[in-house]
C-alpha cells in the first residue's frame, strides 16, 4: 500500500444528516415526484408524492445538495446513491446523507463503500446504521490524484460488469423466449409447423427418487474412486453436492421434491446419483432430454404446495400435463439448440464472476 495513504474517520470530512419523517402512507401515489423506499433505493421508484408536499419538505427541512452521497441506513444497509439534484424524496429515517468537503472524492467513496464493513449496527431484528456508525467508520485516504485513479478504475470495472450482466440477462431471456414459443405451439421448423402433443408426466416417464446418502461417503472432488456426480436440493453449482463411488441413474430428468427450492426441473446427462429429496424421471424412449425438462420447468412451479414446508411430490408431479413436440427427433433437435444457449449462459456467468472476483480482489488490496 502507498505510504502516503492516511488513516481517517469519515467524520473528519463532514457530517451525516437523516431524513425527517413527514409523509404518511396515504400520501403516496398522489403525485409525480418519485418516493424511494428502502426496497427501491437505487432502482426505479414505485411510489410518488405530490409536488406540493415535496416543496413543503424542501422548504421546511434540510435536504441533500448536489453531489451528496445517500446511504441506506436500515435493511440492506450501506447501499449508495449519488444525489444529482433530481426531484425525488428518499424514505424518512431509512436514508441518511454524507455531506463532505473536497478532500475526499465521491468516486473514491463509492469504491470504498463497496467493501466497507459497517461497524456498530444496532437493532434487535433489523440492522440499522446510526449517524455515529457512519462518522466513526475508518478509511485509508490517498491524495486527490490517487483517489481519482482508484475511483475511475473501480468505476470502469462496474461498467464492464454491468455490460456482462446485461448480456447474461439477454441470453436468459432468449432461452425463455425460445421455450415459450415451443410450448405455445407457434414454432416453425424448416417452414413447417411443429406437431405438438399434450402429455401427462406419469404417462411418459417412470417416476422415482434418489437415495439417502451419507455425507461422509461423498467426495468433494471427482476421482477414479468417486467418479459419479451426486445431486441434491442445493441451488449452487447446479445442485452438485459432490461425487460418489456408484451411480443410480443414467441420463434422466430431476426435480427437487421439497424445501425452499422445490420444483426446479433439470436434465442430467450421463451416470449420476442423487439424494432422497430429488425426484427422477426415467425414459427408455429418449424423452428424458433437455427440451422436455425445460418445457416442464415452465409449469412445474405452479404445482408446489406451500402449506408448511414447500413440496412437489411424485404423485402431484405425475399429474402435470404439458406440451412437447410429438417427434422425439424434433425434441432432440431443439434440445441441442437449448443446450447451446445454456452453454453460452454458463460461459457468460463465468465471465461475469471472474470480473466480480477481480474487482473484489483489487478492493481488498486497496482498502484492507
What does this structure look like?
The structure is a single chain. The chain is α+β, with helices and mostly antiparallel strands. It has eight helices and 19 strands. 33% of the residues lie in helices and 23% in strands. A hairpin with a 2-residue loop joins β10 and β11 (192-193). The longest helix is centred in the middle third of the chain and has 40 residues, at 144-183. It starts with 5 loop residues before the first strand and ends with a helix. The model has no long low-confidence stretch (mean pLDDT 87).
Summarize the structure.
The chain has 368 residues and is α+β, with helices and mostly antiparallel strands. It is built from eight helices and 19 strands.
Tell me the series of helices and strands, N- to C-terminal: EEEEHEEEEHHEHEEEHEEEEEEHHEH
CA-based shape: elongated
Question: How many E strands?
Answer: 19
Figure out the total of helices. Answer: 8
Global Rg: 27 Å
Spatially, the strands of the biggest sheet line up as: 13-18-16-17-14-15
Compile the SSE list and pairings.
Layout: E1 6-9, E2 14-18, E3 33-36, E4 47-49, H1 51-60, E5 69-72, E6 80-82, E7 89-90, E8 95-100, H2 106-113, H3 131-135, E9 138-141, H4 144-183, E10 188-189, E11 192-193, E12 196-200, H5 201-204, E13 206-209, E14 228-231, E15 240-244, E16 249-256, E17 265-274, E18 278-282, H6 290-300, H7 314-318, E19 321-325, H8 328-367
Parallel strand pairs: 3-7, 14-17
Antiparallel strand pairs: 1-9, 2-8, 3-4, 5-6, 5-8, 10-11, 12-19, 13-18, 14-15, 16-17, 16-18
Helix pairs in contact: 2-4, 4-6, 4-8
